[in-house]
């Protein structure tokens, strides 16, 4: 029970804060619905009472009034239920939006932490696949309505004979124990199913992804993928069959106890009516109340089972919402990035012991163009992540204009940075929206010329309004890797920033397109500080200085000319080794 409360109350508090109107409508629905149920128990008995006393006219009048009231209550029940469904949908949208925003505010390190990745997947599965939010809200309405009905009906039964209520309560307790056992069994199977379902989802997404079709055809991997997919599907079905089998068993036992209860009600009330010479109207009222009470309890127990199950599914979401957002306590507004200083910075990723950067120190001045080179794993991208404030140094300090980075207001700092990462993402919007929402076509045109994508855009039927990808727009365009990379570079340039970070920005470009980018590099990054990471050493020639990293340490930080004079240095060896690939030999 304590575990349930730890999930339920935080969720209800969270949901109420987001959309309080839903809860007021829920209360109104519960009152109207319970009034309809209680009134229904009285309807027949009131008519029978008039007939027993031979007041036939009154019986007809009562019947007309009762039917009219029944119609009104039924209409109000359906109306409030309609309002409830409409506002439940709106509340779900609010909750999903808030969860998405919460994940966006996660400390970046959490997105590379297995625990939080697992938590996020569990939350998404509970919400999307299991319909936990829908089930929890819907069953809340059923449960509250049933409770109100049971209070009114219970009063009628107690007035007839308290023993009847005690016997019904015993049956209720038995049913409740069966429901709890059923839910625990289903949740236990669900926990076993989770990892299999993740794998199944991965294979489903991979097999359905059009971008993988070439590899499937050419690498002979399709059959392997299908075999694993089918195997996981069978495993998933096996668990679902277990769930349904257990559910059917427990449901049968619950229905059996309910039928026994109803049989007892008829026998007990019938005997009491005969022995005590009670009116037929009293018999009708008590039986109707007892049956409605039993049905209400059944509804409550059913809702409670779904309720408990939903709480179990929604637990990861509640835990997710309790995670502290990325902590950037700085208040200082940043006007301009003038210098970036690594002051004896050592860094290791969370939950690891290996130092990725070791006592790194260097300073980048305003408008300097810096190339960062080194072998794979040297720490190049890690330096970029630190500069972007995605991680904090484990030791030492990263300073902006001589002040520790996290003393600045993060929003004002990040507004001064534009990036192109290796794994950049373009979205299924128009080219214009991908480059910069709200940017004028003239500005976008100028940037597209600089990065060499203008001719391609001009050739498209919808030009700047062409959607990237056909996923949501049949008239969308599929661009090559090099073309998407140019748009990503254009997006970075369109942002009014002081610092431009390019991490392997030309890896998908052909040599001519790459040479064109390099040729205009200083023009593209004019009035900006630029950090450039590339395995293509020719890019370093256009930079003011080159930061050479080896095994997480700064091996050198100098100009291309000076580094080429150090023939025993890593930079010289890398540059010469790569330049041989571009030399022609004649026989």
TrEMBL record:
UniProt entry keywords in alphabetical sequence: ATP-binding, Membrane, Nucleotide-binding, Transmembrane, Transmembrane helix
Protein name in the entry: ABC transporter ATP-binding protein
A Pfam match: ABC_tran
Bilayer topology annotation: Multi-pass membrane protein
Segments forming domain ABC transporter: 340-576
Residue ranges of the TM segments: 21-44, 64-84, 131-157, 163-183, 247-269
Main location: membrane
Domain called ABC transmembrane type-1: residue spans: 25-309
GO cellular component: plasma membrane
Localisation per UniProt entry: Cell membrane
UniProt family annotation: Belongs to the ABC transporter superfamily.
Record-level Gene Ontology MF annotations: ABC-type transporter activity; ATP binding; ATP hydrolysis activity; ATPase-coupled lipid transmembrane transporter activity
Matches recorded under InterPro entries: AAA+_ATPase, ABC1_TM_dom, ABC1_TM_sf, ABC_transporter-like_ATP-bd, P-loop_NTPase, Type_1_exporter
Source taxon at top rank: Bacteria
């Amino acid at each position: 029970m304590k575990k349930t409360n730890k999930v339920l109350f935080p969720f209800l508090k969270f949901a109420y804060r987001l959309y309080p109107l839903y809860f007021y409508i829920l209360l109104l629905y519960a009152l109207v619905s319970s009034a309809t149920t209680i009134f229904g128990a009285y309807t027949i008995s009131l008519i029978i009472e008039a007939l027993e006393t031979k007041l036939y006219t009154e019986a007809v009048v009562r019947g007309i009034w009762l039917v009219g009231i029944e119609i009104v209550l039924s209409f109000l029940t359906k109306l409030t239920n309609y309002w409830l469904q409409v506002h439940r949908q709106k509340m779900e949208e609010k909750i999903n939006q808030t969860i998405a925003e919460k994940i966006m505010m996660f400390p970046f390190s959490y997105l590379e932490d297995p625990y939080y990745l697992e938590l996020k997947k569990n939350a998404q599965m509970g919400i999307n696949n299991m319909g936990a939010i829908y089930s929890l809200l819907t069953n809340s309405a059923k449960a509250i309505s049933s409770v109100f009905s049971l209070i009114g009906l219970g009063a009628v039964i107690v007035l007839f004979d308290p023993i009847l209520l005690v016997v019904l309560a015993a049956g209720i307790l038995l049913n409740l124990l069966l429901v709890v056992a059923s839910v625990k069994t289903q949740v236990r199977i669900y926990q076993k199913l989770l990892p299999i379902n993740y794998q199944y989802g991965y294979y489903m997404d991979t097999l359905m992804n059009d971008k993988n079709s070439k590899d499937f055809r050419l690498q002979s991997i399709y059959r392997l993928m299908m075999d694993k997919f089918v195997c996981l599907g069978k495993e998933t079905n096996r668990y679902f069959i277990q769930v349904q089998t257990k559910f059917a068993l427990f449901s049968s036992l619950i229905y059996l106890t309910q039928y026994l209860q109803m049989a007892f009600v008829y026998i007990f009330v019938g005997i009491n009516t005969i022995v005590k010479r009670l009116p037929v109207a009293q018999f009708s009222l008590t039986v109707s109340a007892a049956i409605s009470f039993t049905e209400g309890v059944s509804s409550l127990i059913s809702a409670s089972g779904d309720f408990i199950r939903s709480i179990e599914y929604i637990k990861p979401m509640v835990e997710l919402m309790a995670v502290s957002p990325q902590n950037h306590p700085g208040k200082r507004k940043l006007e301009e990035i003038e210098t970036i200083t690594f002051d004896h910075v050592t860094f290791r990723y969370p939950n690891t012991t290996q130092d990725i950067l070791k006592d790194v120190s260097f300073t980048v001045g305003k408008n300097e163009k810096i190339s960062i080179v080194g072998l794979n794993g040297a720490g190049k991208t890690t330096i970029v992540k630190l500069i972007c404030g995605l991680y904090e140094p484990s030791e030492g300090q990263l300073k902006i204009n001589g002040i520790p980075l996290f003393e600045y207001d993060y929003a004002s700092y990040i507004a001064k940075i534009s990036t192109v990462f290796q794994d950049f993402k373009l979205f299924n919007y128009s080219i214009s929206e991908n480059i910069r929402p709200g940017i004028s076509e003239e500005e976008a045109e100028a940037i597209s010329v600089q990065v060499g994508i203008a001719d391609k855009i001009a050739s498209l039927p919808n030009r700047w309004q062409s959607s990237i990808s056909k996923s949501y727009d049949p008239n969308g365009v599929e661009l090559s890797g090099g073309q998407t990379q140019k748009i990503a570079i254009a997006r970075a340039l369109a942002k009014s920033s002081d610092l431009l970070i390019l991490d392997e920005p030309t890896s998908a470009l052909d040599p001519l397109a790459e040479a064109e980018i390099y040729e205009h590099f200083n023009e593209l990054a004019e009035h900006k500080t630029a950090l450039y990471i590339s395995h293509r050493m020719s890019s370093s020639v256009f930079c003011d200085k080159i930061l050479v990293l080896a095994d997480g340490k700064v091996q050198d930080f100098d100009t291309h000319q000076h580094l080429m004079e150090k023939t025993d240095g890593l930079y010289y060896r890398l540059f010469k080794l790569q330049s041989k690939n571009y030399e022609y030999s004649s026989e």
